[in-house]
Amino acid sequence: MNNRLPIAAMPVDTPTRRTNNRAQLLLDAAASLFALKGYASTTVRDIAAAASMTPGAVYVHFPSKCDLLVEVYKEGVRRVTERIESSTLGIHCPWKILESALTAHLEAILDRSAYAKVIIRVLPGDVGRAGPALAALRDGYESKFRRYVEALPLAPGIDSRLLRLLLLGALNHAPVWYSDQGEEPTGIAAAAVQLIRGGASSVEQVA
């Protein structure tokens, strides 16, 4: 029996496929180096060497190191956004939506992938002309949490913007304070939501 695939069904190594593969290699190499050394300390030569390419080959795919950073950041945001959207799919209770989103966000930044580290550690204000593009990507992602928090039945006088910033600020520093021997991300997210809903004081406040 002839088990060979028909020619039409065999994978074809086209120039487009090769170009896409090489661009992905560069993105992965750049993400790893940006996460390890920081953006400013990483050179195009470093990225080329990590991807086993020449520096000139980098510019075939990306006009500059700045453009590489934007694409790495975009990929990191895409990955965490997919996790958030998947985790909240089919949930209708606003508190449960927030809890699921916080869990997914925390899991994403703790997965130790280079892309996750870049979107947490590389700040828009520190990267020159790439800053506005990174800020727009971050704002687009955080707009999801803006909607989640604004949908909550909060008490009068609670600043939903400040609440959102405090939540994300605390979770974004999880790589510093999180311990594998401590609470799981699901438990941390549940505790955060419970804290918002019920408060931390056991004594009723008197005006």
What does this structure look like?
- The chain has 207 residues and is mainly alpha-helical.
- It has a domain at 66-198: Tetracycline Repressor, domain 2, CATH 1.10.357.10.
- It contains ten helices and no strands.
- The protein has helices spanning 15-37, 44-50, 55-61, 65-88, 94-110, 114-121, 131-150, 160-172, 174-177, 185-198.
- Helix 4 (65-88) packs across helix 5 (94-110) and helix 4 (65-88) crosses helix 6.
- It starts with 14 loop residues before the first helix and ends in a 9-residue tail after the last helix.
In short:
With 207 residues, this protein is mainly α. The chain contains 10 helices and no strands.
Count every helix, treating DSSP H or I runs of 4 or more residues as helices.
Answer: 10
Name the CATH homologous superfamily of the domain at 66-198: Tetracycline Repressor, domain 2
- Look up the CATH topology of the domain at 66-198: Tetracycline Repressor, domain 2
Tell me the CATH architecture of the domain at 66-198: Orthogonal Bundle
Radius of gyration: 22 Å
Task: Please write the string of helix (H) and strand (E) elements.
Answer: HHHHHHHHHH
- Which residue ranges are poorly predicted, with pLDDT under 50 across at least 5 consecutive positions? 7-17
CATH class of the domain at 66-198: Mainly Alpha
**What proportion strand?**
under 5%
Helix content: 55-70%
The geometry reads as: elongated
The major sheet is characterized as: none
What is the mean predicted local confidence, pLDDT?
A: 87
Specify the structural class.
Answer: mainly alpha
Number of strands: 0
Distance between the termini: 87 Å
